[in-house]
Design brief:
GMP Synthetase, Chain A, domain 3; single chain; 20 helices; elongated; alpha/beta; 4 domains; about 55% helix; Rossmann fold
Length: about 425
């Protein structure tokens, strides 16, 4: 008799009222109330707007909803509204939006990483990217950082070339723009589904999210959902997680929770190899590699200019032509900053680290050697030397030079290191 009465009262209004009594009001309004509920053949069907909502409700509230449905002698079934013809559809406020899921790369290149010429310092980063492309990486996310022109974006392209998995790749600026548009058009759930419908999610330049609180909150939720689902994540930035500007400690900690690797700008060997690979004569490439700044974007510009000249003028480029053609990019007069950057490359430290406040032993030693080299190779005053080494004051430079003098008698390698740095400055 009780069962008959319960079945009779198993209408949508009473069931939703029971849900509201057991679930926090804000959570109910956000996740449960928008569901379409119907009772059919002793089964309660809850239809979500999209697969993301259905999965979230199952994971967070499935047990509670199932228990309440059982009180009404009903089975529970939570499903997404529509997923037709491999197109993710979502209706929000009567607006229908479609996102095509990322297709598998059927023509994946087994040699996708061949276009990235790696120096010794970048071998670890390349190995990590190859592991990510294979889809069996043990680390949950990969964070790649380095200066402009170091090759971060190219590594993402290499992963795309070498992988056969579903990949969603976007820039930080694109994420911000698409998120804002989805809010304006009331298609936020379609945007969420699009970002999550992948095996590997990539974002190039997360620095674009700095200062954009709503976009950052959405991105952090995306990262957590992808991690919980066992998906792979690759992020790039121009600085290490703990050195990012405009990000709070919580975000920096999340970025640092995976594998963090750095990439350095192309050295002379890499620049020479890139030039030769693109048809530049060996002797010209040798000379240009010494005169072009360590910036991959600048190397690409030089290659494009030489190729275009050869195509339009019908003649090959020798060193005389190259000197005239590339006068705007060749380093003729060495500036103090360019000298410091050259020494940074030689000593495998970044210019930002030298100019920073870190007191790590290797950085302190590198700064002191650079100051001693600048003192020997230039006519700069001690104050000027301090300025190009991160704004150090006169007393700091004097202390560094005294330390170097004291160590010369006991460190047999120090004189050789200083001589090598002096040669770079001339």
């Amino acid at each position: 008799m009780q069962a008959t009465a319960t079945l009779k009262n198993a209408n949508v209004e009473s069931i939703m009222g029971a849900f509201a009594a057991k679930i926090d009001s804000s959570a109910f309004a956000t996740w449960i109330a928008p569901l379409k509920a119907e009772v059919c053949q002793k089964r309660l069907n809850l239809v979500a707007q999209n697969q993301f909502t259905a999965d979230y409700v199952k994971r967070e509230y499935g047990e509670i909803l199932k228990a309440i449905a059982a009180d009404f002698l009903l089975d529970l079934n939570i499903v997404a509204g529509s997923a037709v013809n491999n197109i993710v559809k979502c209706a929000n406020d009567n607006v229908v939006c479609e996102f095509m899921p990322v297709k598998k790369n059927q023509n994946a290149k087994q040699n996708g990483f061949d276009k990235f010429i790696a120096c010794d310092e970048n071998m670890f980063a390349v190995a990590a990217c190859k592991k990510m492309a294979l889809g069996n990486a043990s680390f949950s996310q990969l964070f790649i950082y380095g200066g402009s022109g170091a090759g971060k974006s190219m590594l993402l392209d290499c992963i795309c070339d070498a992988s056969t998995q579903h990949i969603v790749k976007m820039t930080g600026g694109q994420f911000v723009a698409d998120f804002a548009r989805s809010l304006r058009d009331n298609t936020i759930f379609s945007f969420k589904d699009y970002c999550r419908n992948c095996d590997i999610f990539m974002m190039d330049d997360v620095c674009a999210l700095a200062g954009k609180r709503a976009s950052m909150d959405e991105f952090l939720q995306l990262i957590m959902d992808l991690k919980n689902a066992g998906k792979s994540i690759v992020l790039t930035a121009n600085a290490a997680p703990n050195a990012l500007n405009g990000f709070d400690r919580r975000v920096q900690s999340l970025f640092a929770s995976g594998l963090v690797v750095d990439v350095v700008a192309p050295n002379a060997f890499v620049r020479r190899s890139l030039l030769i690979r693109n048809g530049v004569k060996t002797d010209v490439a040798e000379e240009l590699s010494k005169s072009i700044a360590a910036d991959g974007h600048l190397v690409d510009g030089v290659i494009n200019k030489i190729k275009t000249y050869t195509e339009l003028m019908g003649e090959s480029v020798n060193m005389a032509v190259a000197s005239r053609l590339l006068g705007d990019v060749l380093q003729k007069n060495r500036t103090p900053i360019s000298m410091v950057k050259a020494m940074c490359e030689k000593m495998s430290v970044s210019y930002d680290e030298i100019c920073g406040n870190s007191r790590a032993r290797r950085l302190v030693r590198a700064r002191q050697i650079m100051m001693a080299a600048l003192k020997s190779a230039t006519n700069l005053s001690l104050t000027e030397i301090g300025n190009v080494c991160g704004g150090r004051d006169h007393a700091t430079v004097v202390y560094a030079l005294n330390q170097i003098e004291n160590q010369k008698g006991v460190d047999l390698m120090l004189n050789a290191e200083i001589d090598a740095m002096v040669k770079l400055c001339k």
